[in-house]
Every structure is written in C-alpha cells, then in structure tokens.
Amino acid sequence: MNMKKNNFFIACIVMSLLGMQSCMDFDVPGDELTGNTEEGSDEVYHGAADILDYHKEISQEGLDLALTNLAKEAPLGYILSATYSMRGGKEATRPGAHAYQYQFNMSVDNYAGYMVVPHTDFPFAMITLNSTYAFEQSVNAGPNGNYTLTKNYLSPILNHPDIDSIPEMKAVALLFKFRK
Fold this sequence. Notes:
This protein has 180 residues and is mainly α. Helix content is 42%, strand content 2%. The chain has six helices and two strands.
C-alpha cells in the first residue's frame, strides 16, 4: 500500500512538472515576439480627422514619406477592413453570402426588404426565422457592433498626421466614417 502511495505521489509530481513547464515559455522579455511579428506604434494621434485640406501642395517625396510612415504605423489596409466590416464582415475578412442583408434587414426595423420571401429557412446563415420580427442573435452583432469595428479601423488612419498628405485616401476614409 505504501508503495502505491509513493508511485502515485511521484506520478503527481512528474505530471505537475510537465504541465508547469509551459508556464516558463515567455519568461525572458522579448521572447513573445517571433521573427515574423511586427510591432506597431504605441503613439495615439489626435489629429484633425474631419478636415480635408485638398488645396495642400504635396510633392512626390512627401507622398512617398507619408505612404511609408502610414504603412509602418497605421496600416492603410484598415480602410479595406473598415469596408468589409460595414458590409457585414468580421475580423477584417470579407463578408459571407448575404451578410449585408442579414445585418441590415433582418432586424426589428424590418418592414419590407429582404424578409418579404415565402420561406423561413436561410441555409447560408443556418437559421430559421419564425416571423418577420423574430430576432436571431447569430445575424445581429448587437448594439453598434459593426459601427464599433469600422470606427476602430478608421480612427488610427484619420487621426494620423501623414494622412493629410494623401487627401484622396482621407476623403475615402471619411466617406466610410460618416456612412452610419
């Protein structure tokens, strides 16, 4: 009996040591950054996001510098991610089939539109709606769900000082910002 206790005790110690070794992975500061990890800027800009200075003279060198800085600090791809999130995409991915209709027409405010169909099953969304006013949680992102995603993608771009050197791109981002 005593031998079984010792074996059990040793097995518990070995299992805890094997389990705890994973806690030691990131003990050295900087180990969490791998070779393909990109660090962004921690600086928060408070620029004139709503002002579009289209009379500003911009040189080719100034444009190249602005594009380089924006690519490093506030990825210009955020504008595309904002577009996707406005159309029903999540986590900077393209929206799925009928995502826009699910998001903007299958809600309590629906009086006509996408819901005027003679069936209740929607195979692309894998839902069944019992009535026009049925609230299906899987197709509604909650209060301001996609608005928040869009805002979080556009704010770093619109407030960055270098976006003023590319007024055309700032104008596109402003159009997305004021859509809702």
